[in-house]
Amino acid sequence: MSHIAMPAHAAPQRPTLPGDQGVWMFICGELFMFGAFFIVYISDRSQAIELFNRSQLELDQFMGAFNTVLLVTSSWCVARAVAAVRAGHDNKAARLLLVGMLLGLGFLVVKYLEYSAKFAVGITMMTNEFYMFYFVFTMVHAAHVLGGCAILALLWRKTRAGRYRHDMTGLETGASYWHLVDLIWLVMFPLLYLLR
Questions:
Q1: pTM, rounded to two decimals
Q2: What does the pLDDT look like over 156-171, one tens digit per residue?
Q3: CA separation for the pair 114, 85 (Å, rounded)
């Protein structure tokens, strides 16, 4: 059986991460930060299980689950938008990015309703240790969602203008950040709402 020699210039390239490689340093830093938060949360929870369990029962699991659906669906839309640009379908990609951004904003509306319900009955960050974690974690995450929505709005505008036809680095970078926001919530939701 004969082997066909590959020319030196045709050597296979090593796969690279999508988007700007510098953003992956930021993503790793964010994952490290939230990972440290979650370790502290689990450690403190183990010292006051009854308090944490009782407080968790006061959260609206439906709202938390609905927000999970919103973010997962949004992340799917953004991934499909990247694929659409690769296939040369800028208009479809722009529509998907717009839907992804609107779903992200929907997440923030739901979170606002959750906060309002808690504040209305006198529950704040100072109520107990569980609520301190709940408000800090979810508010930091909400700030990430808000920033991500601004990024998606920029990606939507540039995609409509055909800016990513020859270089998708900016689109892939923004999409990678949005998937980070989704991933963090996928860990945060069960920790805050479901863990017993």
A1: 0.86
A2: 999 999 999 888 889 9
A3: 36
pLDDT tens digits, 63-91: 999 999 999 999 999 999 999 999 999 99
Give the Cα separation of 112 and 143 in Å (integer): 12
Nearest CA-CA partner of 82 in 174, 182, 184: 174
Residue with the two structure tokens 């090593």: 14
Q: 160: closest CA among 85, 49, 50? A: 85
Spell out the residues 6+ positions from residue 66 whose beta carbon is closer than 8 angstroms to its own.
Answer: 110
Q: What is the CA radius of gyration of the chain?
A: 21
pLDDT of residue 6: 44
What is the amino acid identity at position 189?
A: F
How large is the angle between the packed helices 90-120 and 169-189, nearest 10 degrees? 30
Tokens of 36: 């440290």
